[in-house]
Amino acid sequence: MIVAGAGNDGVETPFYPAAYPTVLAVAATDENNGRAPFSNFGSWVDLAAPGANIVTTFAGGNWGATSGTSLAAPLVAGVAGLVKTLHPDWTPVQVRNHLRQTANAAAGSSALRLVDAAAAVQAPQSVLTVADFAVNDVAGGHPTPDSTGNTLVVRLRNDWYDATGVTGLLTSTDPNVIVTDAIAAFGDIASGATASSPALRFTLGPVGFATAIPLALTVTANNGAYVAQLPVAVTTRGPETNVSLPIAAPTLWTADQIYRVTGDLLINAGATLTIQPGAVVRFAPGASLTVHGTLIADGTPDQPILFAAIEPATTWSRILFESDSPMLWRMPMAPIRVAASCDMYAWSPPT
Fold it and tell me: What tens digit of pLDDT does each residue of 120-144 get?
């Protein structure tokens, strides 16, 4: 394990080699255990140790007091060596995680962690946290209210000691959130490693748009010696969805959304966009919809489909059916309202 001083410029800018991911970056603290004013800082800094007015040797055999992160780094390296003597089979990652987990908050800074030699010689523990999650195969995705069959995949990270036989139980305190597949087996998660759950499933009732869903994963490991309840911060999608990427697969736009077309949108050849009755599609200034595939926009007298500009008194461009489009646009029968100034292009078969 490599330990390096974080630098003595009093800035947040990463300083190398300390800022390399595999190096333990050490800031300096003063006599009050707060960050020394000269010490660099930032999220890239791993630990802190005393580095102000440290008595040390000088060239020529003299002794004296001096300051700097170069004085703090050897203290952390010494504690790392002490941990390694107690756990000779540990990897550098394990030693690094152990030092970080046993550190204490420095004075006046919850982000700066002060190395603690006494805590570092105690027995290690596992610390599991939610690294990230995916909803319906979308990283950090947002499920739709009143929907069934939603999937949730949770990735756990172990920030300290090896965890064995990790399992999880997904629950919710909201009666409108029903977990249908709740149990996940993660297996063993080594120190510093991650593991993903199989797909858990849940159903949503009328929970509302842009609403936090109270989901929690209770994890158990090490034959029951470790138990923690981890919140999973899932929120439902908002009532508006920005659309910019080409539509390359079967896609449904529902009536409970406002779709904001932020640029020139394409429906690729072979793809189908179906717009439900009552849906609202709003275009940014100059934006358009070009159909190479299939567009199905079938409104009803009670629920027309509205195409309009995002902002009042602005102009959007057009809806264009290219000659390779097998159009399903029942214009004479479908109540479709086109608002604001635009050009409407009709499809005609290729000559």
Answer: 999 898 999 999 999 998 888 889 8
Sheet-wide strand order for 183-189: 183-189, 163-172, 212-221, 226-235
DSSP lists the bridge partners of residue 167 as: 185, 220
How far apart CA 295 and CA 253 sit, in angstroms, is 11
Distance (Å, rounded) from C-alpha 347 to C-alpha 324? 9
Show Cβ contacts of residue 160 under 8 Å, excluding neighbours closer than 6 positions. 97, 98, 101, 124, 125, 126, 127, 191
Residue 189 corresponds to which tokens in the numbers above? Answer: 């998660």
Q: What does pTM read for this prediction?
A: 0.59
Euclidean distance between CA atoms 134 and 155, whole angstroms: 9
How far is the C-alpha of 114 from the C-alpha of 47, rounded, in Å?
6
Residue with tokens 């919850």: 110
Q: For 137-157, give the DSSP string.
A: TEET--PPSS---EEEEEEEE
